[in-house]
Design a protein that fits this description.
alpha/beta, 7 helices, five-stranded parallel beta sheet, Rossmann fold
Length: 230
């Protein structure tokens, strides 16, 4: 029996790696999608995507180069004139690393590809419970985008957005990743370094805190590894 296809959005980070593992556990054939948008760590993220795609034996792979997010700017990930902030895990405002409406751009490409492939699902590793507070990582956003898919695709098209991590903390992600044998050593999360993770940006801090809360050693190298449990 042929398995149904799911497009899995894979940045190369730990959340998308777990999301890929969940899609595989759910019985889907994986079509892995990655975007290059001239972000600071583009080449390292692409390597992580390639390594993870091979690990999960992705049926199809698609890497899309989208320069417009870089040209629009407005984020420390795409504009080197904007400093990557040090971690602010109690920060209430949206951080400078937010790439304006990025998930809508990624999902639009994913829907186009999914419709051509006949895929039944799109898996995205977004989480709203333990994240940087990006507005396009909220459940309400994905519910609204699901409505757009339903209204903007062919009548016979059935594509469901799956966000299985949406209410999980990073600790939850680490523990479930261990259970599913997710190769976190192949992933990359740092916002500004490509050789050794900085350990100080929001993404590094959230990741490290998750591993520290889980009592598990993070397998990737860091320049410094602060204690984020305090």
């Amino acid at each position: 029996m042929n398995k149904e296809i799911a497009v899995v959005l894979m940045s190369g980070g730990m959340d998308s790696a777990l999301c890929a593992g969940i899609a595989q556990r759910d019985g889907y054939k994986m079509a892995a999608l990655h975007l290059n948008y001239k972000q600071r760590t583009e080449s390292r993220e692409l390597k992580a995507f390639s390594d993870l795609s091979e690990h999960f034996n992705a049926k199809d792979k698609l890497v899309v180069n989208v320069e417009h997010l870089f040209l629009i700017g407005g984020s420390s990930l795409t504009d080197k004139n904007i400093t990557v902030e040090k971690a602010g895990l109690s920060r209430k405002e949206i951080p400078q690393s937010y790439v304006p409406f990025r998930n809508a751009n990624i999902l639009s490409i994913a829907v186009s590809w999914a419709e051509v492939l006949g895929a039944k699902a799109i898996y995205i590793g977004a989480t709203q419970a333990d994240s940087s507070g990006y507005p396009d990582c909220r459940k309400e956003f994905f519910d609204a985008f699901q409505e757009a898919i339903n209204k903007g695709t062919k009548p016979e098209t059935e594509i469901k957005i799956m966000a299985p991590l949406i209410n999980m903390t990073k600790k939850d992600i680490v523990l479930l990743g261990k259970k599913l044998k997710i190769p976190f050593k192949l992933t990359w999360s740092c916002y500004q370094e490509e050789e050794i993770a900085c350990g100080e940006c929001d993404s590094c801090a959230l990741r490290l805190r998750g591993f520290q809360q889980a009592g598990i050693e993070d397998p990737i190298p860091y320049k410094i590894k602060p204690n984020y449990l305090d």
